[in-house]
Amino acid sequence: MAKARVLIRPKEGILDPQGKAVERALPALGFEGIEHVRVGRMVELEAEDPARLAELCEKLLANPLIEDYEIERLDGAA
Amino acid sequence: MRWGVLQFPGSCDERDALHACSLLGEARLVWHEERDLSGIDAVVVPGGFSYGDYLRAGAIARFSPAMEAVAEFAAAGGPVLGICNGFQVLCEAGLLPGALLLNESTRFTCRQLNLIPADGTKSSAYARISSRRPTLSIPAKHGEGRYYAPGEVLDRLEENGQVAYRYVPGQNPNGSARDIAGVRNEARNVVGLMPHPEHAVDPLTGSTDGLKIFEAVAAAGVPA
What we know:
The complex is a heterodimer of chains A (78) and B (224).
Chain A: E1 2-10, H1 17-25, E2 41-47, H2 53-61, E3 67-73
Antiparallel strand pairs in A: 1-2, 1-3
Chain B: E1 2-7, H1 14-22, E2 26-31, E3 42-45, H2 65-75, E4 80-83, H3 85-92, E5 99-101, E6 109-117, H4 123-130, E7 136-142, E8 146-148, H5 151-159, E9 163-167, E10 180-184, E11 190-193, H6 210-218
Parallel strand pairs in B: 1-2, 1-3, 3-4, 4-11
Antiparallel strand pairs in B: 5-8, 6-7, 6-9, 9-10, 10-11
């Protein structure tokens, strides 16, 4: 089984209110100078056929209209 | 008219939708594992939290056997109404354009508001139109109802008259693009909206305008 991690984030230019809410909360906690916070999702999985991961992302894990994704192999393979 | 109302694990508005449909004809629930829609003239994909809304609202429900059947039903021209989570499911399934994102406020919203049936209306013109056209009083309740589509898609929707319903100016509860509350497909037989017409079918709850939306869908997707 191939281990992989999929990172899913809101597309550039799409308002991310979660990121904004986090950003607004930071100064009150003493964290100044932090900008452009974006909140996404991370999925870890093990796949028998890692060649199909991109298709899996397109069809289910991400909605390509609103999200970008990135597949990271955790077992050293490209 | 025989209505089929889908029911997923996690649906919660299917009973009200069933009641609304039963005021206009016969109605039955269609469990998500059912694949047979024979004898059904119109389909409602109801509100709720199908399959827990895990991953993204509607993302998993679109792969259910019942939704496969609905896709075929829609392709054959059958009228389909998606409400709230049902709208999200139809967008995820690619039966309607666009996507529904987290409300701009990040908060769940629950309020009675007014919708403009926006047949062929451009965003630049609808404020003027809304002041003379009757609006529909319908409740909305959702956390992820911000309608989004790329600008060129929105332009095309307006040009094709595919914007089915808009929030009255100033009442947009979620930051939806161009105040869009509901859209329909190019063939006009599939309609989805975030507000809940099934909760506005009895004077007891303040409005019966919701029935007009069901009637419009039954008449092949032409807005009330």
